[in-house]
């Protein structure tokens, strides 16, 4: 691959946006398996073995917009469909020609997911409670994800870069440039608009001045936390279960007789420190036990009999009688009595713990009933689910999709409604928020309406002024750019615009450089083309414009020993190999897409 090939591909947004979407995890891209009341009829794109839904398309749209906020909407939609067609072809290929992941690999992915942890360890109960699909379906999804990763990594990692291919990149990577920059500050422009311009702007941007979309939903909210919180635990019960740990030290004696002799010495007045000294020949081990909980568990170092003896002591410095344990004959000394009464935080934490413990059987039963009602019923309805589970059907009333009221405080619910098909009365796919499950249907939708101009006059005027100001900045920038190419930037800027010379420019600038960090990054991404003829204009998100000229380009002197240079070249070669591998992955998936039969319903479904 030549230097120009890679440079051209590095400037091709479409290729790398599509690759980026291919490398995004499977979740949210064609793997939803709930299928409540749906099926292939709601697929946007479909093959024999895989499908892409409208929510998947909306996720892709958001991904592209986040990465490229200035990209025109038609281009965003085109790229989203192109990327999802390629992802669908790859998913179909994986199912058709399975790259089977081992059960051990699937288990490792599942058991390392913190979402399925309980008390810091994987919990089968938490796993089944949270996935809300059958374990077999979830394992198939994980297997597909692993296969997707394997095939991508195999192709991307297969590229090799020779020394001859590396050298041009090495030279470019070690190139230094000097630039001359002129700033066109937005604050120097002050636009005014009359009533006609306000009205014209309003007509041209009506979509920006709409009422919120309103929805009315009915839903069942399975919330384990709400079930736990509803259980009342009294202060007395909580206090009785608070673990007020004590601290103690220990002595392990080499015989029971010596331990009894030591205890007799203590009763005769010797302190624990004195006993440790006088019986040193008879003590095999001693040390600090640290905190000792009142009830032994699987992690306890000493048996319950020893714990009871420690808690029977009244004062710090007292010793227990000798106790036979699996570690030998032990004597314990109380070093800290701990609290006499639990504090408010301990009571609250213990109440929460008891609530969770007491709610667990009910939650497990409800989870099982919910799974059966949703996944084992031919055509589930909210009423069926409510009857089988005993959960209530809630009514939201009219809520704004732009707001955060009621159930829409959950961003996942809001997003699901926004991405859904909004068919009135249709049961939608469950929304999963941690271990919480919301199952809903829309009973009313009020589409956005145009706000009358007289109600948004101030906002429209502000937007019109901002747009006109931006246009003035752009016109000034184009004029300065044209003049700079003819006369040179310093002459063209004259006294109207301040110019700054930046030597050894690398994209990082100080606060007093006259160049904001984002503009500096944008300039650094451009190829260093010398001379006035190659003057360029860029716009910063701050609203300012910059015209710059590259005044000198040179190779930097190499610093460091041969070993450091060799390591730097190795790292660069790895980066180029990755770039080349991504290109090869793109070619592979493009070819796969061309040979995959895809049913495309996007024109019909997205026009609704």
What's this model, at a glance?
This protein is of the alpha+beta class and about 600 residues long. The chain has 22 helices and 17 strands.
Folded structure, characterized:
The protein has a four-stranded antiparallel sheet with strand order 14-5-16-15. A four-stranded antiparallel sheet has the order 11-6-13-12, sandwiched between helices. The chain has a four-stranded antiparallel sheet with strand order 8-7-10-9. Residues 1-41 have low confidence and may be disordered. The chain folds into four domains: 3-161 and 573-605, Triger factor/SurA peptide-binding fold, CATH 1.10.4030; 175-210 and 454-555, no CATH class; 214-231 and 346-446; 243-341, Roll (Chitinase A, domain 3), CATH 3.10.50.40. The chain has 608 residues and is α+β, with helices and mostly antiparallel strands. Helices cover 47% and strands 17% of the residues.
Task: Explain the layout of strands and helices.
Layout: H1 3-10, H2 13-23, E1 43-46, E2 51-53, H3 54-67, H4 73-96, H5 103-111, E3 117-118, E4 121-122, H6 124-131, H7 135-156, H8 163-173, E5 175-184, H9 195-204, E6 214-222, H10 224-229, H11 235-241, E7 246-253, H12 256-267, H13 272-278, E8 283-292, H14 304-311, E9 323-325, E10 328-336, H15 344-375, H16 382-389, E11 394-400, H17 411-419, E12 431-433, E13 436-446, H18 457-487, H19 489-493, E14 499-505, H20 517-524, E15 536-539, E16 545-555, H21 562-594, E17 599-600, H22 602-605
List descriptors:
alpha+beta; Triger factor/SurA peptide-binding fold; 4 domains; four-stranded antiparallel sheet; 17 strands; 17% strand; extended; disordered N terminus
